[in-house]
Amino acid sequence: MYDRGFSSTYDSGVGVIPNSTFNAHALRINSSKASETSIFHFFRKNKINLNSVTCAKSSSAPDEPKKSPKSSETALILIRHGESLWNQKNLFTGCVDVPLSRRGVDEAIEAGRRISNIPIDMIYTSSLIRAQMTAMLAMTKHRKKKVPIVVHKEDDRSIAWSRIFSEQTSSEVIPVVTAWQLNERMYGELQGLNKKETAEKYGKKKVHEWRRSYDIPPPNGESLAMCAERAVAYFKDQIEPQLLAGKNILIAAHGNSLRSIIMHLDKLTSQEVIDLELSTGIPMLYIAKGGKISRRGSPTCPRTVGVYAYTSNLARYRELLENMEE
Amino acid sequence: MSISVPCRTSSAYFCSYHNVPGIVTDKAMGTQLKYVAGALPLKMHVLKKQVISGRSSSSNINALSNILASANGSAVLDGPQKAVKSSETALILIRHGESLWNEKNLFTGCVDVPLSQRGVEEAIEAGRRISNIPIDMIYTSALIRAQMTAMLAMTKHRKKKVPVIAHNEDERSIKWSKIFSDQTSSEVIPVVTSWQLNERMYGELQGLNKKETAKKYGKQKVHEWRRSYDIPPPNGENLAMCAERAVAYFEEEIEPQLLAGKNILIAAHGNSLRSIIMHLDKLTSQEVIDLELATGIPMLYIAKDGKILRRGSPTCPRTVSVYAFSNDLADYRQQLESDEE
Asked: Quick check: B140 and B266 in contact, CB under 8 A?
């Protein structure tokens, strides 16, 4: 069964939800039929964001001290950065290093509030400033004393210059590793182009293909498959070992690199991953336990059949469903 | 005598400096001015009062514009600042705000510690102050707290241009960061990161608690390391070494751009900026030691006719100077400087 280690952070305060209200078909968060789904309507009425790791009302839940996870469990938090200055201008960004807009800054800080009580031992980001800023802004809200410090290993000078000479201080450091493998999908010759104009120039269908297929890359760019290859390789090589060795990890990255990692963790098909939409600024939580990494809070997933648990009862229901499917 | 007062020209920049309580009354105006008592006669303060007193904050910008405009004989300026005259270019220096180790009172140096919540707010506030000054290029250090300061400040910038970090570490990063639209490229403000603008490297003090270090090495030794010009902490840089690489970078990379007509923002650290100011203002090593830069408060220089002149000042408690921000003050300053020569 599910440990209660993290579930206290999910408590919605709404009490037991009868199993009969579940619609196992979908949590159609974004669909027009959402209002028909009783569970969605229930959540919406109570202003519960299914995607959040911590309840939106957590501050008002009186006697729920946030417990730290049991030592056998470690947390993996994924945060997709928020709005960038080119999102605002509706330009294809890809790997162009565009910073966050004011709104993106706010989203990052808000994300930080939601994860402020989850222990973090290491942070991984991409080499793009919008992901790095998201991580750093989120961590300004973190309640632990530890301080994120960007690791510099580019050359001898940067290694020598970033040395810390106090054991005490070193023990309170959260290393931040930046890796290009976690970058956004490289969008080739579409980078910098206006989305409307590109549709006019190449035709809507072609653009849709590039944006939403698994293996058709934009000209001189990466397909989602290529992005997934380098992102998942990095995850397996560098991040997973740390996670399974007991480190709590935060990854602040981009839509496509995170989808790739989620595809790997949840064993999604390429069709499912195409349909996967990740909310910006909303942290997603996975728990590593017993060598397995399982989803604890979900991304927006309008077309994927799944139940994302965030209370014990929901968790039990999910367990039931999964047993039924196996 | 022909008064070529450096500070008389454009009024576009005077509005970005914040007041210090007790010195200038109005929020939008004023500079970080600290005067040595006795170095300036009371006349100075009287002049200041004439210019500033009685203004409410909302009308202050307009009031100052009016003063300058009338002095220049040009039309009264409206609230929003005029664009820079094409013969002048702006150089803005911003020192980043509080970092997470500042909070904990640890020596930071080149350890890449990010901003605290307060540092984030300082950066955004700095952005408000420079939101109307055109910027064509941004230089920062290789440390995230300076980069964040620049990016947060630019979220407040009113121009449509977007800062984009230039990546040229290797072939892949060059290829991956290419922009394929001329229109978009023309609206980009390149952001160049360089380690030469990093904070002074503090050697074996990096990560140490300031109190503990004083106990361990003695207050005097620590004071020497922190406040002398050429005594480095063990395996660290002294201010002279920091100045050498920072000023070399400035002269080689930044100055040419500035004098070629680009408006530039530098977001960096206390010691690297002091070094640059030392170079620009031709300070002595004793003067630069005494120079304290306010965090998050932008400092402005104007490049014109091959010269780069100070327009707004850092806090300078022990340097005898007058930092003009009105024509009358500028006149007075000119007078003082001619007297000194």
From this structure: yes
How far does A97 lie from chain B, in Å, by closest CA?
Answer: 5
The amino acid sitting at B168 is: N
pTM beyond 0.90, yes or no: no
Helix/strand/coil percent split, chain A, to 5: 40, 15, 45
Contact list, A166 vs chain B (CB under 8 Å): 106, 207-209
- Does the annotation count A325 as an active-site position? no
Residue A6 CA to residue A55 CA, distance in Å, equals 12
Tokens of B311: 């327009």
- Residue B186, H or E segment: helix B182-186
ipTM score of the complex? 0.73
Name, in order, each residue with C-beta under 8 angstroms of A106's C-beta and a sequence gap of 6 or more: A82
Q: How many Å from the N-terminal Cα to the C-terminal Cα in chain A?
A: 16
Span B174-203, pLDDT tens digits: 999 999 999 999 999 999 999 999 999 999
Question: Taking Cα atoms as reference points, which of B83, B136, B88 lies closest to residue B262?
Answer: B136
CB spacing of B180 vs A193 below 8 angstroms: yes
Chain A neighbors of B110, CB-CB under 8 A: 161-162
For B128-139, what is each residue's pLDDT tens digit? 888 888 999 999
Q: How many CB atoms lie within 10 A of CB B304?
A: 16
Domain ranges within chain B, ordered by starting residue: 48-321
Q: How far is A13 from chain B (nearest CA, A)?
A: 30
Which CATH architecture describes the domain B48-321?
3-Layer(aba) Sandwich (3.40)
In this complex, do A186 and B111 lie within 8 Å of one another by their Cβ atoms? Answer: no
Tell me the C-alpha distance between A41 and A38, whole Å.
Answer: 5
Q: Which residues of B touch A144 (CB under 8 A)?
A: none
